């Protein structure tokens, strides 16, 4: 009889890159679902920890005009030219690497901010969404930028004059849906976080390592009290738990050496994960997002998610872009635009959590000529 393989779940910010403890995995999964909702992210995490995006969203991301910001080593950072409705700009990076066969490969990546403790610190989730490969040449950089629709700062002024209107229906619909889910679920999320926090604090007070974690927690919360985290604000206990998560992870070896503390934390995590799963599933059913997608065959999957890094820049809010004109008589135009937009949004809401995406894990990038990217 074959031995059953232990479950593992990808998590870039822990030693070894994977979680193996079932309680930790279930807790982390629910935390990620909340992160996606709270930060209005464009993708979801699958059962193994891979970050997945709908193919239609990937196509809109690749096609959209992007403006070069700056380069660091072999990485170019850029930002969407258009504002995504009221949600502001979208950030991207392009990583370039050479190979021994004379080919050069560039990978376009989506960068999404994940706020912790109400923005006290931030992570950036990185997902590879497209690739350009060609022989090394004097025109490679120019060709690559054109392929990914990236323009220079000088060209940005020309784009403004052209009054470009881009197709961003699926991206906007995704963010709108996450916003609705957030409004519907956050009260229950806060209640469960309050219960979890109180259980954790009681457990920490009973042992040496727990008191050590508590002291460090007190020091950290004192720094931000009244600024990033204020008692009574929405998400208060969720933010406190996020800070505790980091401290417990920092002392994970010591926690393992205290069986009673570890067992107690596991039990608290289990209860939280089970309750949150019920609340979140009920929240999704309100909007019928569990239905099978008409676009279900249009999927792409990331084979392995990129490691989370520090945030490079903050998103900026903006007003909603103008509707794209429809070539119909004036009296019919408004009705047709509204009908098409509603249909696109309905189709996407049916499929958002059935999607998958693709990406390739990158090797180390070699240096490229920074001047060529300007």
Which of globular, elongated, flat, extended, rod-shaped describes the shape?
A: globular
**Rg to the nearest angstrom?**
23 Å
Total of domains = 1
Distance between the termini: 61 Å
Number of helices, counting only DSSP H or I runs of 4 residues or more: 11
Taking the sheet with the most strands, its summary is:
7 strands, mixed
Main β-sheet, spatial strand arrangement = 10-5-6-7-8-9-12
Output the structural class: alpha+beta
Helix content: 40-55%
Topology:
Blueprint: E1 9-10, E2 18-19, H1 22-38, E3 44-45, E4 51-54, H2 55-63, E5 66-72, E6 75-80, E7 91-98, E8 103-116, E9 121-135, H3 140-147, E10 150-151, H4 153-162, H5 169-204, H6 208-224, H7 236-250, H8 252-256, H9 259-286, E11 299-301, E12 309-310, H10 330-351, H11 370-373
Parallel strand pairs: 5-10
Antiparallel strand pairs: 1-2, 3-4, 4-11, 5-6, 6-7, 7-8, 8-9, 9-12
Helix pairs in contact: 1-5, 1-9, 5-7, 5-9, 5-10, 6-7
Describe this protein's structure.
The protein has one domain. The protein is 46% helix and 18% strand. It contains 11 helices and 12 strands. It has a 7-stranded mixed sheet with strand order 10-5-6-7-8-9-12. The longest helix has 36 residues, at 169-204. Mean pLDDT is 79; it is low at 290-299 and 302-374.
């Amino acid at each position: 009889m074959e031995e059953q393989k232990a479950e593992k779940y990808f998590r870039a910010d822990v030693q070894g890159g994977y979680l193996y403890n079932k309680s930790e995995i279930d807790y982390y999964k629910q935390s990620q679902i909340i992160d996606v909702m709270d930060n209005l992210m464009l993708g979801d995490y699958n059962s193994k920890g891979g970050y997945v995006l709908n193919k239609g969203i990937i196509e809109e991301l690749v096609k959209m005009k992007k403006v070069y910001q700056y380069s660091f080593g072999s990485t170019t950072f850029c930002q969407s030219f258009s504002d995504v409705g009221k949600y502001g700009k979208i950030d991207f990076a392009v990583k370039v690497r050479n190979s021994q066969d004379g080919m050069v490969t560039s990978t376009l990546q989506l960068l999404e901010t994940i706020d912790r403790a109400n923005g006290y610190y931030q992570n950036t989730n990185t997902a590879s969404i497209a690739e350009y490969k060609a022989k090394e040449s004097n025109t490679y950089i120019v060709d690559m930028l054109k392929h990914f629709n990236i323009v220079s700062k000088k060209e940005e002024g020309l784009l403004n004059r052209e009054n470009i209107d881009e197709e961003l229906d699926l991206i906007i619909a995704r963010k709108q849906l996450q916003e609705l889910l957030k409004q519907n679920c956050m009260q229950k999320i806060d209640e469960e976080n309050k219960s979890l926090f109180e259980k954790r604090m009681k457990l920490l007070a009973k042992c040496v390592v727990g008191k050590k974690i508590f002291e460090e927690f007190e020091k950290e919360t004192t720094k931000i009290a009244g600024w990033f985290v204020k008692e009574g604000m929405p998400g208060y206990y969720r933010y406190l738990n996020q800070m505790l998560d980091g401290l417990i992870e920092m002392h994970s070896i010591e926690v393992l050496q205290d069986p009673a503390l570890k067992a107690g934390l596991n039990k608290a995590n289990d209860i939280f994960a089970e309750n949150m799963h019920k609340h979140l599933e009920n929240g999704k059913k309100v909007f019928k997002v569990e239905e099978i997608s008409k676009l279900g065959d249009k999927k792409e999957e990331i084979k392995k998610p990129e490691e989370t890094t520090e945030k490079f820049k903050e998103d900026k809010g903006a007003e909603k872009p103008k509707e794209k004109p429809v070539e119909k008589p004036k009296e019919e135009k408004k009705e047709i635009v509204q009908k098409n937009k509603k249909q696109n949004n309905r189709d996407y809401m049916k499929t958002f959590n059935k999607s998958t995406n693709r990406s390739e894990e990158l090797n180390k990038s070699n240096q490229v000529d920074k001047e060529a990217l300007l």
